[in-house]
Every structure is written in structure tokens, then in C-alpha cells.
Write a structure and sequence with these properties.
The structure holds three protein chains of three kinds.
Chain A: H1 8-23, E1 32-37, H2 42-56, E2 59-64, H3 67-76, E3 81-84, H4 90-96, E4 98-112, E5 123-124, H5 126-133, H6 143-148, E6 160-164, H7 169-181, H8 183-188, E7 201-203, H9 205-215, E8 219-224, H10 225-231, E9 234-235, E10 237-239, E11 245-246, H11 250-258, E12 284-292, H12 297-313, H13 315-320, H14 328-342
Parallel strand pairs in A: 1-2, 1-3, 5-10, 6-7, 6-8
Antiparallel strand pairs in A: 3-12, 4-8, 4-9, 4-12, 10-11
Chain B: H1 3-6, H2 25-59, H3 61-67, H4 70-74, H5 88-119, H6 122-137, H7 140-165, H8 185-210, H9 213-221, H10 226-237, H11 239-255, H12 258-263, H13 281-288, H14 295-330
Chain C: H1 2-43, H2 48-51, H3 65-97, H4 101-114, H5 118-133, H6 138-163, H7 166-174, H8 179-190, H9 192-206, H10 211-214, H11 234-242, H12 247-276
Classes of the chains: A alpha/beta, B mainly alpha, C mainly alpha.
Chain lengths: ~350, ~325, ~280
């Protein structure tokens, strides 16, 4: 991915000399791993890393810059692991010399800011949300919304759509779901970490979207569930594939996960949106960690140790913010995958 | 006594002996080293300008090769999924937000400058001038913070009023449609105007004070009003420096990142309305740079940076040229 | 005739009102911004800000220690890079180049660099430090900040050294001192108030600069003093915390903004005081 390649060795030499001069002055924190990426998984990684530091002294410095950023930085080798809520396809992984493994399952939901309307009061369907984000529905008291929400006093306000301004796996999951339920969305927009939004304001990270929705009356946005809990936002109920009205719950996310066969998925490439099941949450997703095959064994092992510790000891923490732990069979499969792909495992 | 009596032992020295040098050799080496270091430093300082442009141009070559110049500048499609990138929405966003800022800031700066130079009583001149300059000291991120968390909510309560009255005017009403989000192109323009104000008004004030008092006083003596002196005497005299100051402010507005990123709304679509969200080249760089997933994406972002630096270079070059021209005329440095 | 005079006076009166309004508008926004920064900033001030590190999202922690330390490190390293280069370049202009065409060309270029958009400098630092090194680092951030600082120091050094009287220099030369001793021991010493002013103004300029740090120093949620790795810093932390939905983060953003503004104001005041001490030749 190097754009700057021509005089790399020359620059490296200059930088090495400078680095030698400076590193003598600075304290080097050896036991630090740097990761970057998904804002979706940030609350979980932050919780795990705080506890991990107390336990082992190793610092895991995680910068939540969006899944797009995580993918870019791990490809460039500027971080030890990249976190993404959009799984890379096996052929892309192979081409870039990367491996990926899942961390936890969770879900995202629509949030809104309407005076007098409480959390969990509004009900949406996938096609309706697609129409809102396509700017086909512009006002809150549109008949299509009213039909799904009889008895709710919808104000005559313009809908301010909020989406992500940065490259996001949360966006991927959201757009993936919309593509499945709205042929017009699939044709016009599609699904990826960064898409050409037909309308709306862009917030940076899940935090940015939540922040805008918090501040702008009449706005709607999509955020990962942990942010809804922490930001006390008004969330919506959805009608899932079975036609049932569901709320976002840990069980709903895990039900979606139960519908995929983790052992058969190559490089753990699974999509958790729009699955069947009475309680299944339609906009569920997983989040992956990406490693570089060519990174040093010590670096990769340090990363693997951290996440394995999370799998073994961090389940309670995960569940407290509605992240669903992976089943033990998947964890064992991850360990074997590491051995298989890298030649070593923890 | 003759001079030769003072040089004790001079006659006793053999003639063939080398006369001692006036300065020690290591002091001369010290001189050359110092001189070399000074030259080197000056070269670095000057070369930084070219190095910046070259480094950015170099890293944009992939995108330039893929999209060319005309297509990139005029294409509105910024789509990371299909890997098609076009700069047009961001160029428009940058130009429009800066234009709004200048339209608002220039008259206000002129008013402030004339007020301080001509109208204010002397005890208030310094505090007001200091207060306006303080606006320049505030870091841009604080402007962004204030803009988003304080100004935008206030503005969003004014916006419905704007939409109702200005939006109803046929023609330019299109400029004022949209949901009252409080953030968007107009908000960004207003915040930029406040940031540009201290730059343009300080330069205007400085050059207004350089105008020879004989010129002003003779105009007053003929019965000219303050306004007439300002508009017909001072302004024409300082015209090139004032324009230079405006360009300086424009350069600031074009390149401003943090304040704009907070309040512009980050939408890559071009909309005729000023109340809708937009994006500028600096804001899209701030938002998307660390996340460019492919070399083409990264190169296209840097290509955007190249366009920005080309535009701001021209603007800043003209600014410095024009401001210095007045200084040279007066024999003082501006 | 009377009508013309009356009209002219009306225009004059109206323009005076408008200009007064313009000034009030300018001062109004200044006071509004400073007032809200003061109000929300002080509300968020707490001793913990300086003793604890930045908390994870959604937790109730309070702390900015790593960001303060990181920012101090960045400022120090930027000064270490920028001040020598700026000082020597300004010295060359004042003591070697004088008003030659080359020197004037350098001054012109320097003036253009004074108003360089900081995001462009950030891109430049990414290209020459981050990309070859392979990762983000405080060093890259410092390089970007140094490039922003140098034009200011060059300009002030050039002007201030130009103000130093010729008599002192000539006396030193007459005593047999070589040029570099004259400059370093006499001229710099005489002009030190002005040079210091330039350094302080340069420092005030780079405090609070966010854009160049976004893709050079990045950020770090832990305490670190290693400039060869990503390091926490106040401006990027403000950026991250302000755009979040967490109350404690927003409070810290305001507190950090308040401290930044206070720091810049103090620097500007001290610089102004030093400027007052500059001896201007009669």
C-alpha cells in the first residue's frame, strides 16, 4: 500500500539516524500494542484493555477511527491490529497478506430525537428506513411512518438524516441490511464502509452520530447498541424477517448469530443481518480483528494473547454492554485458525 | 620617540620568520561553520514551501494518472465503493464557505478598522484593537467546539425563521431551504467569518494608520466628513494593501480545518441551499484521511490537498505581494 | 446646496453607526466565545485532570494527564527542531543576507509560509515522516508543528536583529572578535527580548493546532513519553471528546479548551511584555 516507495531506503536511513538520536532521550514503553479501527467495538476493547492492563501490565492502545481506518492502517502496517465490522472477503485477505478473526456479536439500531417520544416507542421496517435515508420520506408525520405507529403523535418536523462521515463497519452492516430489504437501495447505493449517501449530515464515529442525534431535534441516525445504552438515546423497535416487532437485545443479536455456521465460514466471513427467528434482531453484526501475516511473531502473539484473554475472562464485561460472547467452539476454531494461517498460536 | 623604538625585539627577529596570523585558525573555522549553518537554516526555511508542494504532488500521482486533471476537478462522484473520486463537491464547498466568510468579514473588518483608526476616542482605541486581535489568538478547535456546542443550537432556533422568510423569496429562496439542524454551509461560513475578522481588520487598521496625516487633515480641513475621508481618501490610498489583507483572510478561510469540520455537517453532496450540510477539502481530509482503504483513495485525498495548496499558494502569494507594495511605497515595512 | 450637505452628514452619521455596530459585533463574538469557554471550562476543572489519564468511553473517569504530558512533549520537540532553524535562518537574513535579492526572496517565501494552512503541513509531515517510518509518531507531529513555527521565528528574529545598533557590533569587531562570536555573544544578546518574543508567539501559534496532528501523532489513551509512537495530545483529545455523546468527555473537552486558551493568552501577554523591552534605535 506504499505510495511513497521510491527512495524508501534513503528515507529510512535518515529516519533511523534521527530515531537513534531521539530514542536515547525518550522512555520506550515496550509492552504496548497499538490497534485502530471500528468505533463499534471500541467500548468493548476499551473495557477489556483497562482490565488487561491491571492484570498483565500490557497496554493496548486502541484508536477508534472507523473500520475503514482500521483496514487501511493494518494494510499499511502502522498498527498491530485493525478492527473492522465489515469482514474482508477471503480473496482480499489473501491478496493483502492478512488474517481476520471475530471478537463478539452485537447489534445496531436507529436512534431519533423527537420531543415527547420515548425510547422504544417508534416502530420501523427496513424498507421504511431505506426510504428515509434515500430522502424519499422527508417529514416525520409522513403517512408511511404513521401507519406503523398508530396512536403516536408524530410532529410535523423535517427529518434530519444523520449518517457516518468516516469509513465505518457500522455503516456496512446498516447498508447491507438496507440492501437486503430494499432493492432500490441496493441498486442506488449498495453497501461498504463508505458509501455515497443520498442525503444527510455526517458524524465522525458512532460517537459523532450519537452526538448529532442528541443535539438536533427531528434527527435520525444509526448507532451501535452500546452507544445507545451509554448515551441514553431514544431507540426504535424494528419488524424483523419473521414479521415480529423486536427490540434490540443481547438475545436478539445472539439469535442472529445462531443462524450462521461459524465453522464452515472461510476466514470467519459471516453476515448477521436480516436472519430468521422470532426474536432475531435484524441489524445484528459481528466485529473482526485483522492481523498482518508478515508482522513480527512477538507483535501478533501479543495481540492474540490479549483477545484470547478477553474470550476467556472478558465475557461478563462484554455482556454488560450487550456484546455477545462467541461460543466456545468458535473460540477453539479461532485458535486453530491462528495455527493454520500463521504457523504459531498461543 | 620613533615607532621603531616601540617594537621591542622586532629587529632581533629573523626576517624569514612567518608573521603570526591576525586571527586564530579555529576562529576562522568557527566563522565558516556558523555561516554554513545559517545558510543551511535559511535554505530549509525557504525550501519548506517547495518541499511541501513537491511531496504532496508526488503522493498524488496515482490519482492524477487515474483521473487526470479536468475529470477530477469537475466530477461530483466521491464513491469509495466504486473507487471513483471527483473533487467538485469539495471545491464548491470550500469556495462557497470561504465566499460567505469574506462577504461577512470584509465589511465588518472595514468598519472595525475605520472605527479604531478614525472614530474611536483615544482611550478606547487600544483595548478594542487588542480585543479584536484576541480573536486571532483563539485556537481553531475552540472555534469548532463553540460553533458546534454553543452557536449551532442558537442558530438552529433562528433557522426556521430564515427558511420561512428568506426561503419564500422566489429565486434566492432556494438558498435557504432545509431542516433546522443548526450546522451546515451557512454556519460554517459565519464561524469562518469570525475567524477571518481579526486578520483582515488588523491589516486594514495598520495600513490606515500609515496614511500620511497631511492627506487626511487636508481633507478634513476642506469639510469632508469622516465617511468621505475613509472611503474617498484612505481606502484608495491603501487599496492594494487592503486587497492584500482580504486575500490573506481568504487564504485563512480556504485552509481552515477544525472549525469547519465541526459545523459543516460532512455531506459530500452539492446542494443549492446554504442551510444544508456540505464539505470542504480540509474537512474531508480531516474526516477520511486515516481511513482511506486503498492506495487510490489515499492518493485522491492527497490530490485534493494538492488542489487546495495550489489555490491557497496563489492567494497567499498575491496577499504578500500586495501588502508589501504599499509598504515599499511608504518606505516602511508593512 | 443645503440638501447636499444634509445628505452628506446623514451618510456620515449612518456610516458611523454601522461601523460602531460592526465593532460591537466583533467584540460581542469574542466575549461570547471567551465567556462560554470560561463558563464550561471552569465547570469541568478538577484536580483529577492533571493526575489521571483519559478514561475509556462510557466510564465515569476524569483525567487528561497523558494528553497534557504528550502536548508538552510535542511542544518541546517542536521547539527543539524549530527554534534553532528559525533563529539561524533569521540570523542569516539579518547578518549575512541583508537586503540582497536572495535575502529578499527568502523573506518573501517566508511570509507566504506564515499563512500556510496547517492541514497541508500535516500532509507534508505524513509524507516525509509517517510513511517512511511506517507508523504514526509524536516525532511526525513535532515536525509538522515546527514547520508552522519556523516562519514566525524567522520573521521576528530578522526584524529584531535588524534593530540592534551597529555600535555594539562594531565595538566587538574592533576588539578582534570573529563574526560568529559577534553574532552569538553580542547581537543575539542585545536582541534577546525580541527573539524571545518570536519564540513565544510561535509557541502560541502551534498550541491548539489540531489538523496537523490528526494524521501524524494520532492519539494514545495511555500515558507515554515515547515520541516515536502515537502520543496523546490535547487538541486531538478535544476533537474526539467534543464529538461524543458522553457527558464526562464533553466536560473534559471544555476544560481542555479553557486551559488551552488560557495558555495561549498568557503566552501572548508575556510576548507583548517582552516586546516592550525591545530597544528601538532612535
Amino acid at each position: 500500500m506504499s505510495i511513497v516507495s521510491k527512495s524508501r531506503s534513503g528515507r529510512r536511513l535518515w529516519v533511523a539516524v534521527l530515531a537513534l538520536a531521539i530514542s536515547g532521550v525518550c522512555a520506550a514503553a515496550d509492552s504496548t500494542i497499538t490497534g485502530a479501527g471500528s468505533t463499534w467495538v471500541y467500548p468493548l476493547v476499551a473495557k477489556w484493555s483497562e482490565a488487561y492492563k491491571v492484570k498483565t501490565g500490557t497496554e493496548v492502545n486502541y484508536q477508534s477511527i472507523g473500520s475503514g481506518g482500521g483496514i487501511a492502517q493494518i494494510k499499511a502496517g502502522t498498527v498491530a491490529f485493525g478492527a473492522s465490522d465489515m469482514p474482508l472477503k477471503p480473496e482480499d485477505l489473501k491478496a493483502a497478506g492478512l488474517i481476520q478473526f471475530p471478537t463478539a456479536v452485537a447489534g445496531e439500531d436507529l436512534v431519533y430525537n423527537l420531543p415527547g417520544i420515548k425510547p422504544g416507542q417508534l416502530i420501523f421496517t427496513g424498507p421504511l428506513v431505506a426510504d428515509i435515508y434515500l430522502a424519499k420520506i422527508k417529514k416525520w408525520d409522513d403517512p408511511a411512518i404513521a401507519k406503523l405507529n398508530p396512536g403516536v403523535k408524530l410532529p410535523n418536523m423535517d427529518i434530519t438524516v444523520v449518517h457516518r462521515s468516516d469509513g465505518s463497519g457500522t455503516t456496512f452492516t446498516f447498508a447491507n441490511y438496507l440492501s437486503k430489504v430494499s432493492p432500490e437501495w441496493e441498486q442506488k447505493v449498495g453497501a461498504d464502509t463508505s458509501i455515497a449517501w443520498p442525503t444527510g449530515i455526517g458524524g465522525k464515529g458512532n460517537e459523532g452520530v450519537a452526538s448529532y442525534v442528541q443535539r438536533i431535534p427531528g434527527s435520525i441516525g444509526y448507532v451501535e447498541y452500546a452507544y445507545i445504552l451509554e448515551g441514553h438515546l431514544a431507540w426504535a423497535r424494528m419488524i424483523n424477517k419473521d414479521g415480529k416487532v423486536v427490540s434490540p437485545t443481547l438475545k436478539g443479536f445472539q439469535d442472529a448469530s445462531a443462524h450462521v455456521d461459524w465453522s464452515k465460514a472461510q476466514d470467519f466471513y459471516v453476515i448477521l443481518t436480516d436472519h430468521k427467528g422470532p426474536d432475531t434482531w435484524p441489524i445484528s453484526g459481528c466485529t473482526w480483528q485483522i492481523l498482518r501475516k508478515s508482522a513480527s511473531k512477538d507483535t501478533n502473539l501479543a495481540v492474540m494473547k490479549f483477545f484470547y484473554w478477553g474470550f476467556e475472562h472478558g465475557q461478563g464485561m462484554a455482556e454488560s454492554i450487550s456484546f455477545g460472547p462467541l461460543p466456545p467452539s468458535t473460540v477453539a476454531a479461532i485458535k486453530a485458525y491462528w495455527k493454520n494461517e500463521l504457523g504459531y498460536t498461543i | 620617540m620613533s615607532g621603531s623604538d616601540m617594537t621591542f625585539g622586532a629587529e632581533l627577529r629573523p626576517v624569514s620568520e612567518e608573521p603570526k596570523p591576525a586571527v586564530r585558525w579555529w576562529r576562522l573555522t568557527g566563522d565558516s561553520l556558523f555561516h554554513a549553518a545559517a545558510v543551511f537554516a535559511a535554505l530549509i526555511a525557504a525550501a519548506a514551501l517547495f518541499a511541501t508542494v513537491i511531496a504532496i504532488a508526488y503522493d498524488s500521482r496515482l490519482s492524477i494518472e487515474t483521473f487526470g486533471v479536468w475529470r477530477f476537478l469537475t466530477s461530483s462522484e466521491w464513491n469509495p465503493v466504486t473507487q471513483t473520486f471527483g473533487a467538485f463537491p469539495f471545491i464548491i464547498g470550500t469556495l462557497v464557505s470561504s465566499a460567505i466568510a469574506m462577504v461577512l468579514a470584509v465589511p465588518v473588518s472595514f468598519g472595525v478598522a475605520v472605527f479604531i483608526a478614525e472614530i474611536a476616542p483615544s482611550w478606547i482605541k487600544k483595548p478594542i484593537a487588542g480585543a479584536i486581535e484576541l480573536l486571532a489568538a483563539i485556537p481553531s478547535i475552540v472555534y469548532g467546539l463553540w460553533g458546534l456546542l454553543v452557536f449551532a443550537p442558537v442558530f438552529s432556533s433562528i433557522e426556521p425563521w430564515i427558511t420561512q422568510y428568506f426561503g419564500a423569496i422566489p429565486g434566492i429562496g432556494l438558498l435557504f431551504q432545509g431542516p433546522p439542524a443548526g450546522i451546515g454551509m451557512l454556519t460554517a461560513g459565519i464561524v469562518l467569518a469570525i475567524m477571518v475578522l481579526p486578520y483582515t481588520s488588523s491589516i486594514m487598521r495598520d495600513v490606515f494608520l500609515i496614511v500620511p496625516s497631511s492627506l487626511r487633515e487636508s481633507a478634513y480641513a476642506m469639510g469632508a466628513t469622516t465617511w468621505e475621508v475613509a472611503w474617498d481618501i484612505i481606502l484608495p490610498y491603501t487599496r492594494s494593501a487592503v486587497i492584500g489583507g482580504i486575500f490573506l483572510g481568504l487564504g485563512r478561510a480556504l485552509g481552515e480545518t477544525m472549525a469547519v469540520t465541526f459545523v459543516i455537517g460532512n455531506s459530500n453532496m452539492i446542494s443549492p441551499s446554504l442551510l444544508m450540510p456540505s464539505a470542504t477539502i480540509p474537512s474531508v481530509l480531516a474526516n477520511e484521511f486515516t481511513e482511506a482503504t486503498t492506495p487510490l483513495y489515499l492518493s485522491s485525498l492527497i490530490y485534493l490537498g494538492l488542489i487546495l495548496i495550489a489555490v491557497t499558494l496563489i492567494v497567499r502569494f498575491l496577499a504578500v505581494l500586495l501588502i508589501r507594495r504599499l509598504g515599499r511605497r511608504e518606505g516602511a515595512s508593512a | 446646496m443645503k440638501a447636499v450637505v444634509a445628505r452628506r452628514h446623514a451618510v456620515d452619521f449612518l456610516s458611523k453607526i454601522l461601523m460602531g455596530i460592526a465593532t460591537v459585533v466583533g467584540v460581542f463574538f469574542l466575549l461570547w466565545i471567551l465567556w462560554t469557554t470560561l463558563r464550561f471550562g471552569i465547570a469541568g476543572m478538577h484536580w483529577d485532570l492533571f493526575t489521571k489519564d483519559t478514561p475509556a468511553p462510557g466510564t465515569n473517569g476524569f483525567g487528561l494527564r497523558n494528553a497534557f504530558v504528550g502536548s508538552l512533549g510535542l511542544l518541546t520537540l517542536s521547539m527543539a527542531i524549530g527554534v534553532p532553524i528559525g533563529l539561524m535562518a533569521g540570523t542569516w537574513l539579518a547578518e549575512y543576507g541583508f537586503h540582497s535579492r536572495l535575502a529578499n526572496a527568502v523573506r518573501f517565501i517566508n511570509d507566504i509560509m506564515l499563512s500556510a494552512p496547517s492541514i497541508e503541513i500535516g500532509l507534508f509531515a505524513y509524507a516525509i515522516v509517517v510513511a517512511p517510518m511506517g507508523h504514526f509518531s509524536g516525532l511526525a507531529g513535532s515536525v509538522a508543528l515546527a514547520v508552522l513555527m519556523i516562519p514566525i521565528i524567522v520573521r521576528t528574529t530578522d526584524e529584531m536583529l535588524g534593530l540592534v545598533g551597529g555600535d555594539m557590533r562594531e565595538a566587538a569587531i574592533a576588539l578582534g572578535a570573529p563574526k560568529w562570536v559577534v553574532i552569538s555573544k553580542v547581537t543575539w544578546k542585545a536582541g534577546r527580548a525580541g527573539i524571545l518574543t518570536g519564540v513565544l508567539i510561535g509557541l502560541a501559534r502551534i498550541t491548539g493546532e489540531t489538523a496537523p496532528l490528526l494524521f501524524t501523532a494520532l492519539n494514545n489513551q495511555y500515558f507515554s513519553t515515547n515520541m516515536l509512537r502515537p502520543i496523546a495530545n490535547i487538541p486531538v483529545v478535544i476533537f474526539q471528546f467534543a464529538l461524543s455523546p458522553y457527558e464526562n468527555w464533553q466536560q473534559m473537552a471544555w476544560a481542555a479548551a479553557f486551559i488551552t486558551v488560557l495558555f495561549v493568552l498568557v503566552l501572548s501577554l508575556v510576548a507583548r511584555w517582552f516586546l516592550g523591552k525591545v530597544q528601538v534605535p532612535k
